Amino acid sequence: MNNELLALWDDCASESSVRQRLYRVLRQSIIRMVLSPGQALSEKEIADTFDVSRQPVRESFIRLSEAGLVEVRPQRGTYVVKVSQAAVHEARFVREAIEVAVAKSAAEQGLDEAVIAELYDLIERQKRCASPSDYDRFFLLDEAFHRTLSLGAGHHSAWRVTEEVKAQLDRVRYLSVPETTPLPKLIDQHTRIVETIAEGNVEAAEVAMRVHQREILHSLPELVARFPDMFDAKS
Amino acid sequence: MNNELLALWDDCASESSVRQRLYRVLRQSIIRMVLSPGQALSEKEIADTFDVSRQPVRESFIRLSEAGLVEVRPQRGTYVVKVSQAAVHEARFVREAIEVAVAKSAAEQGLDEAVIAELYDLIERQKRCASPSDYDRFFLLDEAFHRTLSLGAGHHSAWRVTEEVKAQLDRVRYLSVPETTPLPKLIDQHTRIVETIAEGNVEAAEVAMRVHQREILHSLPELVARFPDMFDAKS
DNA sequence: GAAAAACAACTACCATACTAGTTAGTTCAG
DNA sequence: CTGAACTAACTAGTATGGTAGTTGTTTTTC
């Protein structure tokens, strides 16, 4: 496991500070299940692993705690937060609220032709991940799609909040690979979203985004059954 | 100015750690304009002011930076973020998206009688702030109203995100005292929201919440004119 | 008098040490 | 053999020192 951590550490060498680099590595590790839900961490252990002092580790833990990914218990330890069904539902609720508002705003006000073109380009690239299935790449393109849509509609804060909230959802995504939802279905949903926005059809854009955002809930019960230790006991 | 900071510091004596206490004091000071937009801060200066070490100060700065309230420039200084019209619009956009979804959810699924009663009780207490005007108290009751609505509807994450996002809006609120919007008008809007939710009228609840959330935008242009130094130059 | 160079004083970031709280393991008494 | 007491080893929180970057001031040169 430390090999994966160190591999990510090397990947993130371009970060501006040790704290930023650590934060990115630990965040990615938690989302991708390299660090498992419930796993105990400590400032000293992580500092020794990456040969840095405890302070940037501690500062990363603070940010991860803010992001709801770890729980720091004073004098006891730091624990990777288990995935909570309630937290997943809540994160989906908040993300859906924001992304639906973004889609409606984009349909109402229109998007630049260049943004529309970029969205279609991302969809073409997603299609190339569907066969053979390349989930890691699809995941990145999916994220780029939603980011481009939010920023293209002028909603930078919306994307920033969505990015934070979706960490809980991303953990479930990584747990559910191969996707319960076939990639072609997700790609169709993306296409529908862009089409309805390009047409200026506000209601259809809303419906398309809602349907898309609720897809993740379909796989949740099966995942809880397959990985009971990963999930918080409370519903 | 340091007197106000130290007064807040004394008020927050019950916090669990120095960092939590500092974070709360600094956050409240920024929101209430005790620390002005654009003002330079430093780890050492704040540490000396409160007679603590730099590390908890530094850790509070990190959280404030995450919350978009300060900007940390390595080796140069830490600055209270100026209010940005764009940031205010964006924060309002995100908050409206979330709170409208909460209101609809509450209207669809219904709220406990106890929650409805608590909301009406808060409205009664708000009325007592309207004449004579007690803006500080109204502000707290307004916040309690929205928090009770979100938590009562079961949307804890929604409230957590809203609370973070609304910091930018709260700064504008404090700048605009006395309220551009008369308190009775805001109270009427709160009443309308609860009535439509209690009736289970989803569409009316949505409209009522949208109207309420857009109220803050009415005062923005006048505030920019009155306090040009508080606002970021970029639109 | 103006411009360039040198210097001092500030900053945030990182490293290390100390302290108090918590838990697990060991020892001792009954 | 069991339970209580003690101890060691861990933890996070806080304090302090060192370093590199940045900026403002002072000095020197032309």
UniProtKB/TrEMBL annotation, chains A, B:
Record key words, sorted: DNA-binding, Transcription, Transcription regulation
HTH gntR-type domain: residues covered: 16-83
GO molecular function, a single term: DNA binding
Record keyword DNA-binding present: yes
InterPro entries recorded: GntR_C, TF_FadR/GntR_C, Tscrpt_reg_HTH_GntR, WH-like_DNA-bd_sf, WH_DNA-bd_sf
Source species: Modicisalibacter muralis
Organism placement in taxonomy: Bacteria, Pseudomonadati, Pseudomonadota, Gammaproteobacteria, Oceanospirillales
Keyword Plastid: no
Protein name per its UniProtKB record: DNA-binding transcriptional regulator, GntR family
